[in-house]
Amino acid sequence: MKKRVADLVSRMSLEEKAGQMTQAERGALTAQGDIAAYDLGSLLSGGGSTPTPNTPEAWAKMIDAFQLRAQATRFQIPLIYGVDAVHGHNNLTGATIMPHNIGIGASRDPGIARRTGAVTAAEVRATGIPWDFAPCLCVTRDERWGRSYESFGEDPALVKSMETVIQGLQGARDGKDLKDDDKVLATAKHFVGDGGTAYGSSTTGTYTIDQGVTKVTRQELEAVQLAPYQTAVDRGIGSVMPSYSSLDILGDGQGAVKMHARADMINGVLKDRMGFDGFVISDWKAIDQIPGDYASDVRTSINAGLDMIMVPYEYKDFRTTLIDEVKAGRVSQKRVDDAVSRILTQKFKLGLFEKPYADTSGASRIGSSAHRAVAREAAAESQVLLKNAGGVLPLKKSQKVYVAGSNADDLGNQTGGWTITWQGSSGKHTDGTTILDGMRKAAGSGGAVTYSKDASAPTSGYDVGVVVVGETPYAEGVGDVGNGNDLELTAADKAAVDKVCGAMKCAVLIVSGRPQLIGDRLGDIDALVASWLPGTEGDGVADVLYGKRAFTGQLPVTWPKSEAQLPINVGDTTYDPQFPYGWGLTTLTKVPAGGAATLKALAVAAAVAERTGSGKAGRALVGKARLLVQQKAGSGPGITAAVAGPFADADHLLLTGKYGAAVAKLTEAYRAA
């Protein structure tokens, strides 16, 4: 393959090479003939950029028509087409929509991360698309960030454990599966520090935190934000996308520099130190944010190690500018050859030279029951039970249940942003099952489930109430807190909670991309569930509500008491949240007896598991210890700082394989409870 790439590059003109480094939005093409005229290497569909009708057949037909144009070029170099499929093939109506990453992180299950990736890859490739701008390996450090839900969690150890998704998307680490009809090239994004930007540091429009400045010491950068990228490189990730944000490394004398301009990080760390051999793709119009004129933007980004630019509109200008910069000697021919070699290598691995056109043999499996079963399992595993006074959950089929709240019967709200369109929307916009639908099915013919969205229907005569509240969809900085959003429930949701929980035993489900502030109502709520954004399969939520499956999810982020506490993260010196990182009660599971004595025995066994490298045993032992702590802490007046700190630390230690130390921390939390 190296020979094929080198041979092809040696025969290409500068104009052809510049074309390979250009990516245009499909809607920006002034004429399809431009693909050949400008030797374009790549096209993309931005969020919501879809063919009409929005069907698998129409996607494949559209991309094949583009690909046909590329065949008219001198060397017939195929296009590589990319989309943001960040939780399933989310631009396509009828696709299987997974829980957003925050929910996958809550599952603590690397297996389900891999399987959701595999389903996504199969559905994306079956529509003729070989490249996915996912996964987001962001480590979210402030819930005010509008992209919080795109992160697996606030702990780099948790993010690293979920990178099995890369194998789900790409297959084998050496790239030998990329040519298969159910695999895609994955993209680790956004390199680096996208989740660490400071509140108030964004200069993009009315954004408050997204695309802002991440101010860190080199040690923090390595430990928190960079950690997941070495794992991605080791797993064979094919492409990497830098972040819109700026990086300010304290003491390096550079100040805040846009990531798309940081040669020290892209060339120096990612390519040279980590050994990344795939290609680097810019974010949407991101080089335009680099200070200076357009020629300077192009030169700076390409010299920093960008291999392909998501222009996405002015593709002719970009290509001409790049050619001019090379001719003027400001971008070296060697740099261009390296970029083109990296791009062509992935096109060869994907088998695009041999099979440029869509292989739609897997199209019948898009949105199939087998694929939805995986999404349903992921949704069930993502549910985090935060409180369960008096064992309100699981519900019984015989109970009369009163359901209320804005998010009980809204597919759009439960799938969130990046669904059908960039921002997502409320209401029914694709095929799926709402939480209410799922509950009605789970209750069966004998069950009685009554629904009143605003809780205006009479509340007498019910055994239990379920109030499903939370957020409406948003994406990126549009969802930043302070940009028209906060972390409070709406007045209507608060009223529904107050009315139902005042009239009967109640469970409150929060369907949202991030924690919501509910401290003032916690005393009146019997059971509280963090449902995150569970995707199209509301049946998964119903499965745990009705006890078909146990609640097993754990918080992937710290749940704050107030906005004033933000940012708050595991390992902070002052740490007094509503619920700590890693918290998650279980149902259908016996908590071990014996209290402190049992913990002592678990500590001994966990230390042995750690020494012998027995991960499965170690995780099970820490899990038992966790249940003991939660039982004791959960029955008291609340979780104190003395409990929360060591409890959260224990979950981080567990993820790093330090099982003995994790049980020691849990023992500390137990004594404090």
TrEMBL record:
GO biological process, one term: glucan catabolic process
Catalytic reaction(s) noted: Hydrolysis of terminal, non-reducing beta-D-glucosyl residues with release of beta-D-glucose
Keywords linked to the UniProt accession: Glycosidase, Hydrolase, Signal
Pfam families according to UniProt: Glyco_hydro_3 (PF00933), Glyco_hydro_3_C (PF01915)
Entry keyword annotation includes Signal: yes
Record-level Gene Ontology MF annotations: beta-glucosidase activity
Domain of life the protein comes from: Bacteria
Domain Glycoside hydrolase family 3 C-terminal span(s) in chain numbering: 384-586
EC class of the enzyme, as a word: hydrolase
Keyword Signal: yes
InterPro entries in the record: Cellulose_Degrad_GH3, GH, Glyco_hydro_3_C, Glyco_hydro_3_C_sf, Glyco_hydro_3_N, Glyco_hydro_3_N_sf
The EC number(s) this enzyme carries: 3.2.1.21
Domain Glycoside hydrolase family 3 N-terminal, chain residue ranges per copy: 14-345
Recorded family membership: Belongs to the glycosyl hydrolase 3 family.
Name of the protein: beta-glucosidase
Lineage, broadest ranks: Bacteria, Bacillati, Actinomycetota, Actinomycetes, Kitasatosporales
